[in-house]
Fold:
Amino acid sequence: MNTSIAASDRPRRRFAPLAMGLAVLLLAGCTQTLTQAETAGAAAGANTLQLDAKNARVVLMPLDIELSQISAAGLEEPKADWTETARGHVTAALSAALGEHGLALGLYVKPKDAKRARRDDQLDKLHSTVGGTIITHHYTQQYQLPTKRGRMEWTLGDTAREMGKDQKADFALFVFLRDSYGTGGRKAAMVFNRMLGGAMTSGERIAFASLVDLRNGDIVWFNILYSDSGDLREAAPARVVIDDLLGDFPI
Structure:
């Protein structure tokens, strides 16, 4: 597991304080990337799941991804062209990384039926919400729920079974990713701020991925990633990010 302690001059949406709180909590290493994977029912990284790469049917859900540019003042502007470029690189990297282990990753096919399509869209949004809850209540020690006793026990519910039948898949891989890059003015401000003893970043990446058992809706593997280096707009760096995000993937 690669870890780092990083600081930002302002919260990166609702996930940044949690991810950075986790970095401080772990207090390990000095690299610029932090990841930590968990499997269902397990505490402290114990693995309880192993996929059969030849027979497992895994569908990749539409990526929840957005890239932004940060101005010198710290304002974020979403960049649609960057996002679409990164979407292609990340999708290719996921397929390649898992393919090297013999797992053929299927791509989600949107149902023609409007009701089923809305169902899947709501399930995707639910994943983002549940993912944020996991970060809060599983990775952040002071907010852990006593009833779970540190175990990874979370679910997207029975709706996932219906989608699994439509997609002819046993598992679904969900990926949430937010990335930002500073302008030239932002980078200059960062250098000046550091000279004064402050801490700010020219960009950062927050991501989490979930493997969901479509037979019951349970999240059986989850990984969080925080990094303040790299570039998803290029294929090779994107592959490095995905290798980190798929760390300890059960295959």
